[in-house]
């Protein structure tokens, strides 16, 4: 069987606000079919930006863009804050709804606020949302700014806010992730002048952007890593098409040391996988978004250690998996993972997905559990979290002969594909 890697979620979401910076057309391809993208499309339509979708491509025409005083939509994604920067170029006051996203630790927008303030834009928290006051936006201004900590979102928002105007903006201690790189690549194609040296970005501000371009989104490194671990834990011969090995960062070295090798799109595992001691860090370190899957891998190996240096509340999914037998303990900031057998006493059990990546890790553990206990069924609540970031869910669960049935928009039911089930409510594995 084959798993196909889609375009990168965390690249396309900020790229989708760039039409607001031009008056013309822009085409993206290799766009993942996920709910977060649909939400961003809805916001663009509020701004009167025309969208023509064909397969995995979309063409955007912003010639008739309109900026309302209040942008009203149900924002369940964090990336809607990229509209803060691009709409500030209209030098007006706009109220944006509060955004949510995954609750995995401190995700303050303080770094964004600090930089916006330097360029004369104020982010003010109101009862009904964020008021973005850009009436005093400094179009003709130069500055040097250093982020207190490395942040993908703050780096991207700072670039988007800086690109139009006059002067030079120097950003220090920036993120080096693929997602930042893709935003810079598109802005360069549109006429932007941006130079990168390690974690420093220099922007020569331009009065106008807008050369019509086409751009193909890079394949998703997080789904690449997710798929590698699904395939490694499967008993099947699986080919993965489109692994973004270039942007896997430290993950590539980690799985090699564990005994998992990528060879000609195939995943090869040594007979006995090696335990590991790893910690997440900013790219090119281990992505925090891949930590939950490495955690599940560790539960099948034992004697392994993980520390997450990026987010403080990333292990909520692991607490939920205690219901089906995962074994681990926390020692200071590290988690020690013991070899675990996934099972439970009941015929059917319900697990709650706490966030996007944690939910997908629970999905992986559920597949392992049902493979070894084909008479069991698992219902996943908050399944919509997983749908926010994964367009290839079916190919992932096919690695384990697991059947997925939707109960409603928030629940899924999983069971052995060899034993059809009758659904009542929810989503089951």
From TrEMBL:
Q: Name one GO biological process term.
A: peptidoglycan biosynthetic process
User: What pathway does the UniProt record associate with this protein?
Assistant: Cell wall biogenesis; peptidoglycan biosynthesis
Organism classification = unclassified sequences, metagenomes, ecological metagenomes
Chief location: cytoplasm
Q: Which organism is it from?
A: seawater metagenome
Subcellular location, record wording? Cytoplasm
Q: What is the E.C. number?
A: 2.5.1.7
User: Would the keyword Transport be found if you checked this record's keyword annotation?
Assistant: no
Q: Which InterPro entries match?
A: Enolpyruvate_Tfrase_dom, Enolpyruvate_Tfrase_sf, MurA_subfamily, RNA3'P_cycl/enolpyr_Trfase_a/b
UniProt-listed PANTHER family: UDP-N-ACETYLGLUCOSAMINE 1-CARBOXYVINYLTRANSFERASE
Spell out the protein name for this chain: UDP-N-acetylglucosamine 1-carboxyvinyltransferase
């Amino acid at each position: 069987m084959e798993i196909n890697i889609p375009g990168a979620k965390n690249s396309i979401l900020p790229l989708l606000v760039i039409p607001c910076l031009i008056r013309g057309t822009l085409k993206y391809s290799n766009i993942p079919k996920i709910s977060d993208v649909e939400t961003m499309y809805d916001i663009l339509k509020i701004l009167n930006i025309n969208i023509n979708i064909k397969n995995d491509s979309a063409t955007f025409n912003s010639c008739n863009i309109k900026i309302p005083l209040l942008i009203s939509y149900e924002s369940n994604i964090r990336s809607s804050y990229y509209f803060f920067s691009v709409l500030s170029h209209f030098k007006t006051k706009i109220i944006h709804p509060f955004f949510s996203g995954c609750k995995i630790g401190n995700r303050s927008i303080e770094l964004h606020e600090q930089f916006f303030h330097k360029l004369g834009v104020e982010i003010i928290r109101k009862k009904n949302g964020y008021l973005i006051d850009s009436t005093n936006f400094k179009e003709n201004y130069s500055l040097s700014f250093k982020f207190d900590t490395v942040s993908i979102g703050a780096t991207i928002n700072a670039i988007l806010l800086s690109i139009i105007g006059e002067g030079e903006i120097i950003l220090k201690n920036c993120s080096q992730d693929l997602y930042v790189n893709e935003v810079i690549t598109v802005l360069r194609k549109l006429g932007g002048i941006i130079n990168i040296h390690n974690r420093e970005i220099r922007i020569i501000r331009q009065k106008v952007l807008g050369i019509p371009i086409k751009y193909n989104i890079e394949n998703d490194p997080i789904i690449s890593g997710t798929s590698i671990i699904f395939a490694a834990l499967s008993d099947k011969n699986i080919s993965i098409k489109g692994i973004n090995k270039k942007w896997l960062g430290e993950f590539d070295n980690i799985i090699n040391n564990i005994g998992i090798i990528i060879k000609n799109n195939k995943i090869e595992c040594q007979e006995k996988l090696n335990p590991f001691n790893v910690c997440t860090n900013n790219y090119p370190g281990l992505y925090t978004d891949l930590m939950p899957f490495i955690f599940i891998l560790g539960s099948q190996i034992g004697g392994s250690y993980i520390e997450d240096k990026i987010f403080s509340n990333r292990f909520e999914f692991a607490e939920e998996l205690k219901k089906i037998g995962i074994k681990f303990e926390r020692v200071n900031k590290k988690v020690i993972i013991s070899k675990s057998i996934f099972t439970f006493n009941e015929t059917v059990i319900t697990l709650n997905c706490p966030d996007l990546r944690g939910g997908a890790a629970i999905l992986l553990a559920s597949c392992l559990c049902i493979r070894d206990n084909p008479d069991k069924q698992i219902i996943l609540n908050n399944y919509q979290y997983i749908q926010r970031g994964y367009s290839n869910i079916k190919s992932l669960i096919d690695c384990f002969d697991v059947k997925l049935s939707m109960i409603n928009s928030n629940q899924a039911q999983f069971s052995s594909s060899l034993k059809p089930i009758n659904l009542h409510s929810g989503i089951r594995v």
